[in-house]
Amino acid sequence: MERQFYLDLAQSGLRMPIGADLVLHEKPNPAAILTDGEALGRVVEETARRYRTPLAFAHMDLQLEKTVLLEILGIPAADIALFHSAKTRVPRR
What we know:
The chain has helices at 3-11, 20-24, 30-34, 37-50, 62-72, 77-80. It is mostly helical.
C-alpha cells in the first residue's frame, strides 16, 4: 500500500487500537491461544474486523518472549521470573 493510504486514514480520525490483547482476554483460554499461531491469528483478524480497520497489531507478550529466550539459554525455570538481563551478564559460550 502506498504511504498516502495511511496518511488518509490518520486524517480521517481513525484510531486503530492495539486491541488484540483485549480481544484475546475475552476468550476462555487466552494462555493457550498465545502459543497457537492459528488461534492467535484468528484473534488478530477478529480485532481488525471489530474495529473496522484494515490493520490489527499482533499481540506481543514480552514476558512470554523472555521466558522462551531464557529457556533456550538454559536458565532454570525457577529463576526466570527473577532474571533481569539488563543487570545480569550472560556468559558467552
